[in-house]
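Pasting as-is:
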Amino acid sequence: MSKTRKEKLVEDLRRIIEEAENLLINTPDGVTAEEYQQNNVLKM
């Protein structure tokens, strides 16, 4: 059975929130999230 658009949206939002939380948790003090993301996350 296929998922509804709402279910897909909820899954996507949960994934986005989880990624954002991980960025916040892993970002060292004194470094902006943007700098951290450019230096670390975008290398993946």
